[in-house]
Design goal:
The structure holds two protein chains of two kinds. By secondary structure, chain A is mainly alpha-helical. Chain A is 74% helix and 0% strand. Chain A is built from eight helices and no strands. In chain A, helix 3 packs parallel to helix 8 and helix 5 packs antiparallel against helix 8. The relative contact order of chain A is 0.10. Chain B has a single domain, classed as Cytochrome C Oxidase, Chain A (Up-down Bundle). Chain B contains 17 helices and no strands. In chain B, helix 9 runs antiparallel to helix 13. The longest helix of chain B has 36 residues. Chain B is globular, with a radius of gyration of 23 Å. The N terminus of chain B is likely disordered. The chains are: A mainly alpha, B mainly alpha. At the A-B interface, helix 1, helix 3 and helix 7 of A face helix 2, helix 5, helix 6, helix 7 and helix 8 of B. The structure holds copper (II) ion.
Amino acid sequence: MAEAQYYVPHGTRWPIMGSIGLTALVGGFAALLNGASVASLVMVLGFVILVAMMFLWFGQVVRESESRIYNDQVDRSFRWGMGWFIFSEVCFFGAFFGALFYARVYSVPWLGGEGTGVATNLFLWPSFDSVWPTNGPAALGGAYQVMGAWGIPALNTIILLSSGGTVTWAHWGIIKDNRPQFVWGLLLTVVLGFLFVGLQAYEYYEAYAHLNLKLSTGIYGSTFFMLTGFHGAHVTIGAIMLTVVMLRGMRGHFDSKNHFAFEAAAWYWHFVDVVWLGLFIFVYWL
Amino acid sequence: MSAATTRDAHDDAHHDDHHHHGPEPGVMRWVYTTNHKDIGTLYLVFSFLMLLLGGLLALGIRTELWSPGLQFVEPDFFNQLTTMHALIMVFGAIMPATVGFANWMVPLMIGAPDMALPRLNNWSFWLLPFAFALLISTFFMEGGAPAAGWTLYAPLVLQGGANLPFAIFAIHLMGIASVMGAINIIVTILNMRAPGMTLLKMPLFIWTWLITAFLLVAAMPVFAGAVTMLLTDKFFGTSFFDAAGGGDPVLFQHIFWFFGHPEVYIMILPSFGIVSQVIPTFARKPLFGYESMVYATASIAFLSFIVWAHHMFTVGMPLAGELFFMYTTMLIAVPTGVKVFNWVATMWRGSMTFETPMLYAIAFVILFTLGGFSGLMLAIVPSDFQYHDTYFVVAHFHYVLVTGSLFGIFAGVYYWLPKWTGNMYDERLGKWHFWLSTIFVNILFFPQHFLGLAGMPRRVPDYAVQFADWNMVSSIGGFGFGLSQLLFAWIVLQCCRGGKQATAEVWDGSDGLEWTVPSPAPYHTFETPPAVR
Ligand SMILES: [Cu+2]
């Protein structure tokens, strides 16, 4: 039976630990960017503290969840919380998609002399023809080749879409209390997820080694790597989340009624999936 | 059943020994706390400290502007003052103060035992001191603090000293804190209301915070994206804001203001909510047009996402863009007008009394509306070409942020202080604080309208002699207003330490769940949900 009262914890040590870890991480990174090489130690230390904090914090929540002290209302709080967190992530990607669309629809054509850009083109960059992709009128980063859509990216699309299917299959498993199906479905999803990340890494290697396509390749390189990079980071996080859920499933956690952690990770996975479709269409294909 | 309801939810083994319902003893109470009242207090205290620090920087600005010529500070340090003043006031003073109100009042007003996600709530607060430590530390770095204005426009901001990555990461931490706090508030409001409290029975303060929290979750990540692009442009060779690579410095302005305009509503909507609680209490009438207030707030939130480029009319946008953003901006006057009308109509034929919260609320309605009018002037593209980057803009946004947001916050502090402390504040001193603040704030900011219309640019340490007189007047107002806030600190401190015992209802015309619990509100309230009629 679910608890009657809403669970309100009394005191917690994890947030302050998280603040210290996060501050050391970003403070160390900032100092490193300013050229203080010892700062990388602070950064690593901060990262370790942060990861430890997450283990401890989530570990406690998992224990509390398994001892069934959360009632349905607590469960709803987690659901709403995860939903709005994903919404905030969508908005974060929105900034970078906004930059991509702005460059493609406005700034590059303007540099090429369209609309209000007539004088800009005439006096500043008379030889610049606006085409997409571009590394700009000053050809930053030098000659480069475009990353095609129908090689690895298309394969990655298939991989990620299939992983959306396998994660749903896992969901059907836990709903029927079919644990093997649940675990196998998750294992497949996680394998596909890390396969995606691996292929993405290989694509980056190709871009840097053979295409001369870099972060510094003008606006094309900037939007390409920032969008796919943040997406890849999110796939990695999602795959780690699913891995944790899988390990918990193997330990006997979750049943047909109690598996919010799985659903949260699955929602996140679908979000990452949808972002990829946007990337495939607007970064690689069109 | 009883076993289920009496389970004391303890976090760590180290305080298993006291199955109590009071706060943990010692200073670690504040670090480990998951109690919404503790966290609300932390937010409010932190925001007041930041208000003092930001105010100190403002006084530095007003000191330098006392007379023409350079007398006290170097121009670059002056720019650091304006930049840091704004960043600290926006992200350190106003926003955390309103989150402090949300923490204290949302559970009390909707009949919830606490915030929905209490541990996350602790983290939302405890990131802030660290974020501001990073930000403030830039004052002591080579090249000093950020000096390109709080808007951080590229490419200027990329030409600063060592501060840039620190400021950017500080903003990231503040953003994470804001988003976590906002998610918590949304979840609390949607999921923790006492049975019977339907959405349209919620107090208006709850509605304004629900919508504010939505704006935060939608806008802060965009800001995080914008400053991330600054970071990569500076350190990793990207060219988002560099035309040579096909980017555009104006792109930064677009992304920044896509966040920045909702941000101004993030700062004002909670004060709208506070004023909408205060006025009915002291007019002893229910809020006029409650539902229209809800819909007006929602409309303002929607419009806030499609008006951003009114901050950039002079960058050379296509004409269609200028017109679009001009008309959408002017549209905001409609729901805002609805609100002002409703506040006035609530007072109409009410049996009004003028305690300090009410004085602040009335001053809010008048002075915020004044700031709204100058906003309308700025919304008109051809006029804005004249006013852009002048002191007129400074006057405008200080009317909406100081006599708007901050006065709303003052109204709220006086209104709920007896509920928080159990004591009445000194009404006579409160009135002194009100009149001193209101008179000095107008001496401070009203002349800036004249300065701007006469052509004095903003963010300059020196100016033509024709601007000397009004600048001196403005500086006198600045010092008067700043010193008046010490009185505020004294009143609050005195009220915390003692004073006339407050009743549960506190005010004659008070209405709402927060007035059904004793004053001071016990450490835990509504552990079993109250009945809502
Ligand atoms: Cu605006």
